[in-house]
Every structure is written in C-alpha cells, then in structure tokens.
Amino acid sequence: MKNIILFLGLMFVGLVLFPGRASMAGETAGEYIDDSTITAKVEATIVKDPDAHYFKIDVTTTQGDVVLQGFVNSKDTEERLMTRIREIRGVRTVKSLLRVEEKK
C-alpha cells in the first residue's frame, strides 16, 4: 500500500512540474502538431500531385522545418509542391534539395 501511495505522489508531482511539451511552449494540446503528422501531410501532398506522385521524394521534418530530397520532372512541379507544403499547418520552413530529372 505504501508503494502505491508513493507512486501516486510521484506521478502527481511529475504532472505538476512537467505538464507536457505543448503546455510549456504556450500551445494547447489541440494546437500542437508533431513532426510525424507534418511529414504524413507533406507525403500526402506529394502523392496527390499529378506530376510528383511517381517520383521518389524523401521528406524529413524537424520542429516544423521540412526538407525535401529526391527528383521532380520540372521546376514548376517543385515550386507547386513548395507552395502547397508551406500551406500545411505546423510547417515553419521548407527547404528543397530536389533535382530536376531530365525526360528521356
């Protein structure tokens, strides 16, 4: 019984001192969007694009900063993707390391 009381006391202290990442950043839980969610939304944007969906594009997200690596068929496709990705909630910046693959 002592162990349970001690455990519950430690949990309470932990919750008071460390309420969570979202609260400490001044965001509510509903406002916080994690990097994996942003990455999934970026990948969905790429899949929906009529010109980019068949290219291999790697997406890395760190604290809302998105980096794209891979290939596209044109600069227009790259610019369109960048514009759409910037509109995704939680995205702070987008860096493109995409290369245009020549049509053969």
Task: Give descriptors for this structure.
alpha+beta; 3 strands; three-stranded mixed β-sheet; 2 domains; Histidine-containing Protein, Chain: A; 104 residues
Structural category: alpha+beta
Bulk shape = elongated
CATH level-two architecture of the largest domain: 2-Layer Sandwich
- First CA to last CA: what distance? 74 Å
What is the arithmetic mean of pLDDT?
A: 80
- The DSSP helix count reads 4
| Spatial order of the strands forming the largest sheet | 1-2-3
What percent of residues adopt helix (DSSP H or I)?
Answer: 40-55%
How many domains in all? 2
Sequence of secondary-structure elements = HHHEEHE
CATH class of the largest domain: Alpha Beta
Query: Which stretches are low in confidence, meaning pLDDT under 50 for 5 or more residues running?
Result: none
In CATH, the topology of the largest domain is named Histidine-containing Protein, Chain: A
Q: How many strands in all?
A: 3
